[in-house]
């Protein structure tokens, strides 16, 4: 374990979430100090080794031999074990959790056909995404014509990702309101510190979503449509080895993985461009820079703070011995602003070159929704600033309203004028 440079106590896992006001206001005030003093350390509150350096995290997050399933973690890894505390004894692992938490062979067996069908859908989904974005912009235009400010999060950033995945899945337009409610509820499954009310909301929405998918899978098997659920039932019929329960769980995971995170990617990007008018001017002068804008946002202000792995063997990381079944928590946010890797890391620069960010993780568990998130952000940002070139903060001096959901970074509200 690397030694801290002074005697100031190291932050606990709670101090590395927006539940802590200092971290919520500026995560890098905490992370820069931690990375400089003790870049690999054991946090006894979470029962994990917390890593903050890019050159430690990048190879480990890409190491396919490490485990993801919390059932493989030692009992002391209380944060990871929280995700495994409701597993029925004797249940097939693939029917109790999604590919987010599975190891091979179940992970590869389920992710393979899902990637095949999902990526094919994403590759031809740009017209759908453009239509969804245009609808949101039309609704905003009706407000701005009256000279009123509007909340970009609720009017634009929240509905676009949910409506996009709903369109790909084949959710009926009349059920979008329900679908949005369920998808907002199930995101609490990624909050290990959720309270009783949040857990109850999560369970209610998860049950409703599972029932919806169960009925829809059966209906699509009888009457295929032009959507992802029909694609998956076809692959099942052709021999893809996954059950209906596994399909339900992983369709829900597509929502969890891409709903809130893409909302935050779009919102964070808009805020950054308005805070850095010189970078926004570059985009307006050359719309072809949109891909670089999205990638720099993912590096500079990623939606997700952390990911985790479990040691599948005894190993050493940053001079710190780690035993089999001990858990890692990787601070993706800290890695993406590591000064040993990124020149002037706290500068938002849409022309930045160099090593890639780790905002989507890596290896076998690299974010399955990354291609769709990139597409949605590119279309949304490009069209937003084209439609409203004079977009600006409604109250330029107002402090940002960051949400407090642990391990995610996004805005509650973003009041703008056009």
Description:
- Keywords: Heme, Iron, Metal-binding, Monooxygenase, Oxidoreductase.
- GO terms for molecular function: heme binding; iron ion binding; monooxygenase activity; oxidoreductase activity, acting on paired donors, with incorporation or reduction of molecular oxygen.
- Cytochromes P450 are a group of heme-thiolate monooxygenases. They oxidize a variety of structurally unrelated compounds, including steroids, fatty acids, and xenobiotics.
- InterPro entries: Cyt_P450 (IPR001128), Cyt_P450_B (IPR002397), Cyt_P450_CS (IPR017972), Cyt_P450_sf (IPR036396).
- With about 425 residues, the protein is of the alpha+beta class.
- It has a single domain, classed as Orthogonal Bundle (Cytochrome p450), CATH 1.10.630.
- Helix content is about 50%, strand content about 10%.
- It has 16 helices and eleven strands.
- The chain has helices at about 20-25, 25-35, 55-60, 80, 105-125, 125-145, 150-155, 160-170, 175-185, 195-220, 230-235, 245-275, 275-285, 290-300, 330-335, 370-385, and strands spanning about 40-45, 50, 150, 305-310, 315, 320, 325-330, 390-395, 400, 410-415, 415.
- The strands form four sheets. It has a four-stranded mixed sheet with strand order 1-2-7-4.
- Strand 1 and strand 2 (about 50) form a beta hairpin.
- Helix 6 runs parallel beside helix 16, helix 9 (about 175-185) crosses helix 10 (about 195-220) and helix 10 crosses helix 12.
- The longest helix is centred in the middle third of the chain and has 32 residues, at about 245-275.
- The protein starts with 20 loop residues before the first helix and ends with a strand.
